[in-house]
Amino acid sequence: MSDSSSKPPATGGPGNWSFTRWSTIGQLEALEVHHPLFQATLFLQGAHLTHFAPMDERNWLWLSELARFQPGRAIRGGIPVCWPWFGDPLRNPPEIRKRIASSSAHGFARTALWRLEDVRESAHEVEVSLSLSANDDFQEHWDGHALALITFSFSIRGCQIALTTTNLSKAPLAFSQALHTYLPTDDIQRTRVLGLGNSQYIDTLKDWDYVSQEGPVYFEGEVDRIYETGEALTVVTPSGKRKLTSVGSDSTVVWNPGPGKAQRLSDFPDSAWQKMLCVETANAASDYRVLNEGQSHTLGVFIGRA
Ligand SMILES: O=P(O)(O)OC[C@H]1O[C@@H](O)[C@H](O)[C@@H](O)[C@@H]1O
């Protein structure tokens, strides 16, 4: 499945690194980081991180055992980058919707080929940057000109992701987005998310009604909510805790498909809903952003120990 070499793909840069190497996984090119302190796997398609783990630890991200690594197909698990719109185009505000020429959820960035910009290595950290220039090549999906630059910083403390969007068009650019993090759990029924109490959420399963959250979020069946807060969160599972700290975000999506939707999802085992949850650092619903010509916005998350 995985074939490592130092030979860069046509879309990659030179590979003169100590801890990072090119790899072909399925039909896709990826960068594998094998640092003495941590490991990571990052695909050029979608700038999609599927694996991060400090040495001797299990993957901090959930990755479906049915994930397929094919051009143009979203990888199920890891951290899909949803950009330049989040969710169903029809659920986005008119300013965003008017640019979208497709019915696909979560934008085109997660299946587009990103360009490697830079790899920086040190004794403590590896930093990888990729870019996606959304120009006329993406006309069939979207009408706009923007640059997305994403930087992953891996260290023994955790993994930081920063996604900067710059409006390259003259007209204001409205967009929504998310870093759609899949996390593993041993048992979803013994999993909770702390930090969302005292906030409001949109319950997308109940006609998009507003609901007040009190206390921790528990999972009993399908959950699909957009919380109106970007506060730091702690995810507690039977085997440990993770802390997610965001920047540039005032919305957080919490999702688990439950047993019913699990059967309809692509590349997703029927019982896998018991072993995963998504906590997505977002600019979604009323937290969408508007950039004037040349302006930038950074959405970021740090995933660390709690
Ligand atoms: O199957 P996709 O397009 O990867 O989407 C997965 C899920 O992504 C979540 O962000 C949405 O809130 C869910 O409604 C959706 O089912």
From TrEMBL:
SUPFAM superfamilies given in the database record: Galactose mutarotase-like
Xref: Gene3D superfamilies: 2.70.98.10
Transmembrane segments: none
Pfam families reported in the protein's UniProt record: Aldose_epim
GO molecular function, one term: glucose-6-phosphate 1-epimerase activity
EC number assigned by the record: 5.1.3.15
InterPro entries xrefs: Aldose_1/G6P_1-epimerase (IPR008183), G6P_1-epimerase (IPR025532), Gal_mutarotase_sf_dom (IPR011013), GH-type_carb-bd (IPR014718)
Record keyword Ion transport present: no
Coiled-coil zones: none
Residue positions of the active site: H180, E280
UniProt keyword Isomerase present: yes
Keywords, alphabetical: Isomerase
Catalytic activity: alpha-D-glucose 6-phosphate = beta-D-glucose 6-phosphate
Single Gene Ontology BP annotation: carbohydrate metabolic process
Family: Belongs to the glucose-6-phosphate 1-epimerase family.
Protein name: Putative glucose-6-phosphate 1-epimerase
Species assigned in the record: Marinobacter nauticus (strain ATCC 700491 / DSM 11845 / VT8) (Marinobacter aquaeolei)
Lineage, broadest ranks: Bacteria, Pseudomonadati, Pseudomonadota, Gammaproteobacteria, Pseudomonadales
